[in-house]
Design brief:
single chain, 410 residues, 57% helix
């Protein structure tokens, strides 16, 4: 009617906008496109997608629409973006029962939410929308801080998508089914995330190149997403990790990540010629992680090597009484692993400061063991009363000097 009457363009645009919204809502409710004169299809079951992920997708699409309008983009481009935004809002309402509002916490969905924090479908939408926004910002040559913030959000979404589905996000690809969170104890993931965070802060303090910082941030976000998938809560520095069914010592995979991240930090500190106390502290953490890795897997940690499987304790191996059970059990394993590390460092003729730091850590562990058990630490199979003393060599009996017999001369 409006087009026939040649009404004003704003009036026509508003009516078209409402029409598109109604068509999208019709499709969301019935599962099929609206056609004039056709009998409506039976209502469709709302598709998956957690409220959290739909909230992210809608917010990202809204940012894109505002950006397009601010930049006075072409009308067809804006209309397409608005259409997507309306579709997301309809899907959000269908999933939560309430209208979407910017900044508001999403309402609980009637459908059971995925434990990984969002279905693949909804995270796929959110990541695609954020990717569109990033490309738009770069095309328009927006300010660096604005682009960086958008890229940060995109990386976080990609990491969350991978944690939920087990595969990297790719534009246009159908999302993979949610993956069961992989192994890796919470303790080890906590260590890996903390070490990676230290590296990121160091890179920023030293004003490293942007690609180097971005790569480190990407790894940090992936670790945080993996931690959340394993524990159900966000990672926070300094907090004790949530309990996990994984072994207390940490799986080889997670300890491998933690050790690699700490090694990167140590190398960075040495390259930048940081203060000696700072380097020593980082090296101390690295040595502790290597010792824990060896205690958990039975083999030395090597960069780039696939982690060995967690070893099972051997019941045949005799251990000094009081060291296998009780409070000293775990400490005994750490002392043994640290002792092996010290011997390896000496064999490899490592720098003196590195050996000294490892020896210091070994002595600390032995002191800790004695405080917990009341006795000195002894290696497996050693005597409880201390190292065996070497048998004293028997003194050779003094040779008796026989008196010389006088020879009678005839």
């Amino acid at each position: 009617k409006l087009k026939t009457e040649k009404a004003g363009k704003p009036e026509i645009d508003e009516a078209v906008k409402k029409l598109l919204a109604l068509k999208v809502e019709y499709k969301a409710a019935t599962g099929s496109d609206w056609k004039p004169g056709a009998a409506p299809a039976p209502p469709a079951t709302p598709a998956g997608g957690s409220a959290d992920a739909l909230n992210l997708a809608t917010a990202a699409q809204g940012d894109l629409v505002r950006k397009l309008k601010t930049e006075k983009a072409a009308k067809p481009e804006i209309d397409e973006a608005v259409k997507k935004l309306l579709a997301l809002k309809v899907e959000y309402k269908a999933a939560t029962g309430s209208d979407w509002k910017p900044g508001a916490a999403p309402a609980s969905s009637a459908a059971p939410a995925s434990s990984s924090g969002g279905s693949g479908d909804a995270l796929n939408l959110a990541t695609a929308a954020q990717g569109d926004l990033v490309r738009k910002l770069k095309t328009e040559k927006a300010g660096k801080p604005e682009i960086d913030e958008a890229v940060k959000k995109l990386l976080a979404l990609k990491a969350e998508y991978k944690a939920a589905t087990g595969s990297d996000w790719k534009p246009g690809a159908a999302p993979a089914p949610p993956a069961t969170p992989a192994g890796g104890s919470v303790d080890a993931l906590n260590l890996a995330t903390a070490a990676q965070g230290d590296l990121v802060r160091k890179l920023k303090t030293e004003k490293a190149s942007k690609p180097e910082i971005d790569e480190a941030v990407k790894k940090l976000l992936a670790l945080k997403a993996e931690y959340k998938a394993a524990t159900g809560s966000d990672w926070k520095p300094g907090t004790a990790p949530s309990s996990s069914a994984a072994p207390a010592g940490g799986s080889g995979d997670a300890l491998n990540l933690a050790t690699a991240a700490q090694g990167d930090l140590v190398r960075k500190l040495k390259t930048e010629k940081a203060a000696k106390p700072e380097i020593d502290e980082a090296v101390k953490k690295l040595l502790a992680l290597k010792a824990e890795y060896k205690a958990a897997t039975g083999s030395d940690w090597k960069p780039g090597a696939a982690p060995a499987q967690v070893k099972q304790p051997s019941p045949k191996k005799e251990v000094v009484a009081g060291q296998k059970d009780g409070p000293g059990g775990e400490l005994s394993a750490k002392v043994a692993a640290q002792g092996d590390l010290v011997r390896q460092l000496k064999t490899d003729k490592k720098p003196k400061e590195e050996i000294d730091m490892a020896v210091k850590q070994l002595l600390t562990l032995k002191t800790e063991f004695k405080a917990a058990t009341g006795s000195d630490w002894q290696p497996a199979g050693g005597p409880a009363g201390g190292p065996a003393k070497k048998p004293e060599k028997q003194k050779k009996a003094a040779k008796e000097v026989k008196p010389k017999e006088k020879v009678e001369q005839a």
